[in-house]
Predict the 3D structure of the following.
Amino acid sequence: MSYESYPSGDGAGEFQPFPGDSQMPDQTRGPAPKSVINAVRLMYAGAAMNAISVILALTSIGSVRSALKADKHHYTTSQINGDVHLFVGTVIIGGLIGIGLWVWMAFMNKAGKNWARITGTVFFGIDTLALAFSLGSAGVAVSRIFTVIIWLIGLGAVILLWRRESTAFFKGQSGR
């Protein structure tokens, strides 16, 4: 919003938005409807499940080390350790990014940002592709279960975000 020295009418000389400024706040949007609130709750649940899956992945370091030793028997201990450290770093960084995205999308969708609804839907599409690829590869059953649960949470959030009352909220209409 651009501010100019535009008299407010009371002679105090305070700054007021320049008349005709196109960035006026949207005053027609009411409180978030129940569908958006429930989607936001699901997003927080997704962040929590993501955190739990990171913790579970980090508890499997021993089995990762054993699998690397079996698969790459020609590797030195140092190379195995390097791969284990890469696994740990990837799990931690990827997990923090995932948790951060869930929380960020929750805040922005609750605030009624339509771009956040669209972005969250795109993230869900990417997660759907990742789920399809992960189901076709070898992995630990517990990890797959968490992946599917997190995907289902995302599905629920996306469905709620695109309901009629949610759409009215994101378009800035009170819908009430």
